[in-house]
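Batch manifest line 202
LIGAND: folic acid
JOB: complex structure
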Amino acid sequence: DDMGLELTLIVAATTKMGIGFKGGLPWKGLKKEMAYFRRVTLGGGESQNTVIMGRKTWDSIPPKFRPLKGRRNVVISRSLSPSSTPASTTPETADGPIILQSLPDAIEFLRNTQKNEKVSGKVFIIGGAQIYKSALEMKEAKRVLLTRVQGDFECDTYFPEMGEGWSKKSGEELRGWTGEGEEVEEEIEEGGVRYRFEMWER
Ligand code: FOL
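JOB STATUS: finished
ARTIFACT:
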């Protein structure tokens, strides 16, 4: 049953909602922030989680880290996907990402494959701007895990307007959903940059 297919967007953004600069992240060295991304997307459960990303985000991940370990990697690309293969019959290769043409195709693919309990974990949208925008237009997008980075980094890519109906949840609710420990509530400082972890739902 796929009634429970929910999408969670995960993003780190500046106060002006900047998320990227010149094909990468706007900052360097927020190691604990990246560790949070890794822990949360990996999860701790029995079933494997999925990360869905655009092709430019795939390119931005250091080759030694991709595909992101321990997670099903889905990449959205019109040019790299075999155009005649329906999403429902896209073969899953042992290694490397699953490449699909659009976010709706990716959702269809997951609906057809998440019946397998080993892979019926959480589904994360990890960017970038174009994929976040498509995701926010879908009813399945129920949650945003937003890291608010208090810094004025130069950016050329921004998180799209979230629109109506979103509310920020408490730190306790964030911990409940992510399985994070107490430390997630506090404001983190790393190399002179402060940030805090938030969870929004609709
Ligand atoms: N969300 C949050 N909260 N922070 C981010 O940095 C972030 N980044 C992306 C999407 N959502 C995010 C997209 N960019 C890696 C690199 C870039 C990236 C996402 C992931 C990456 O290499 N991740 C490795 C860990 C690398 C390390 O330990 O330094 C991973 O295993 O997740």
